Amino acid sequence: MSHTVSDKKRLQARVRRIEGQVQALGKALDSEAECMTVLQQIASIRGAVNGLMLQVLEGHISGHMSDPDASVQQREADTEQLLEVLRSYLK
């Protein structure tokens, strides 16, 4: 079973919090809030997304990447896919 399925409630709770933060950012912009308020909200959103990424990444590595039954070729393919995602994320 995928860890995103087994951790579904916790992941969805994180996503809902991020949605709330994004909505708050939109309201701050609509109300012409000070730059520091907007910057703080953006930083909070980024931190929340990073936390979500870390949680899913940890589950993926421990649940999929460390499969002792996987072939060397499968591990190499899985590693390359993960690296592609991380490269994209860290741009």
Describe the structure.
It contains four helices and no strands. The chain has 91 residues and is mostly helical. The longest helix is centred in the middle third of the chain and has 31 residues, at 35-65. The chain starts with a helix and ends with a helix. The mean pLDDT is 93.
Q: What is the fold's blueprint, element by element?
A:
Blueprint lengths: L2 H4 L1 H23 L4 H31 L6 H18 L2
Helix pairs in contact: 2-3
What keyword list fits this structure?
about 90 residues, mainly alpha, 4 helices
Brief account:
It is built from 4 helices and no strands. With 91 residues, it is mainly alpha-helical. It is elongated, with a radius of gyration of 17 Å.
What does the average pLDDT come to? Answer: 93
The gross shape turns out to be elongated
Class based on secondary structure composition and strand pairing:
mainly alpha
Q: Gap between N and C termini, in Å?
A: 30 Å
- Poorly predicted tracts of residues: none
Number of helical stretches of at least 4 residues: 4
Helix content: over 70%
The number of distinct β-strands equals 0
- Strand residues, percent: under 5%
Radius of gyration, in Å, reads 17 Å
Q: Write down the secondary-structure element order.
A: HHHH
**Biggest sheet, open or closed, and with what strands and sense?**
none
